[in-house]
Design goal:
Largest sheet: 11 strands, mixed
Structural class: mainly beta
Strand content: over 45%
Strand order of the largest sheet: 1-4-7-3-9-11-13-15-17-22-19
Oligomer: single chain
Radius of gyration: 27 Å
Number of strands: 22
Distance between the termini: 101 Å
Helix content: 10-25%
């Protein structure tokens, strides 16, 4: 005579765990509803304002934490003119323009980290020739055109492209963490071009004493004047071509170009 097998009772999730999961799901649902409502109100309250200010006698310009930055050259001794475009919704950015005794102007802006929503600050600056410039964008692009700096010039972005066109300075540094570096008409004794997640493409107007170009995740393409250089061009995962460049280990001009995940090409202008 066969013995009937009794079904094994299904294991149930402990009551305390079920309550905790239900509570977490409820909180998540409330959070999503609240976030959606906040975004709708923020969009409805969104508006944009533009302000213009002139600063005579500025020798150095420092811009920190902007969204987009656009710099254009102006005649020497002209006032430095700043046009600030602010987009805001339910929350507003913090803005600061500070002049130092050393005739430096510092423009600083920041949007709230939590529920920043529509917040955005863009600077359009007319920069007199001879001004030292340092500009950094935390969430946008940096563009410089027709600038003539007497000292070093440094442009950087944490989340966008950096572009320089017809720019000259004693030293030029263009860096981005999440975009491309694009440049043409650069003139400086020292050039440093660096991208962590994009291409580096540059055309140099005059031979630099030291040109360093690097990309961690893209190509490096350089067009340089027809001169003699010390060249160190390498790639960890791509092709390297610098055959059109005249080289000499004793040359006064040095080029170092490296890519970790792309091609490296250096060509001489004929």
């Amino acid at each position: 005579m066969a013995t009937a097998t009794q079904p094994v009772p299904a294991r149930r999730t402990p009551l305390a765990v079920r309550r905790a999961l239900l509570g977490a799901a409820s909180l998540l649902a409330l959070f999503l509803v609240a976030t959606g409502a906040y975004n709708a109100l923020d969009w409805a309250a969104r508006h944009t304002t533009t302000e213009r200010a002139a600063y005579p006698g500025v020798r150095e310009l420092v811009i920190e934490d902007a969204s987009d930055v656009h710099l254009t050259g102006a005649p020497a001794r002209a006032p430095l003119v700043v046009r600030t475009r602010v987009r805001e919704g339910l929350r507003s950015p913090d803005l600061d323009a500070e002049r130092s005794a050393g005739r430096a102007l510092r423009l600083d802006s920041s949007c709230p980290n939590l529920f920043g929503g529509s917040c955005r600050v863009e600077y359009d600056v007319s920069v007199p020739a001879g001004t030292i410039v340092r500009a950094r964008s935390s969430a946008g692009t940096v563009v410089a055109e027709d600038l003539r700096a007497s000292g070093p010039l440094a442009l950087s972005s944490s989340a966008g492209d950096v572009t320089a066109i017809d720019v000259s300075a004693r030293a030029i540094e263009l860096t981005t963490s999440a975009g491309d570096v694009q440049a043409r008409g650069l003139s400086a004794q020292e050039l440093e071009l660096d991208s962590s997640a994009g291409d580096v493409v540059a055309a140099v107007a005059t031979p630099a004493d030291r040109l360093l170009a690097r990309s961690s995740a893209g190509d490096v393409e350089l067009l340089v004047p027809n001169a003699v250089y010390r060249v160190d061009a390498t790639s960890s995962a791509g092709d390297v071509d610098a055959t059109s460049v005249r080289t000499d280990p004793r040359a006064p001009h040095a080029i170092t170009a490296h890519s970790s995940a792309g091609d490296v090409g250096i060509a001489a202008r004929r």
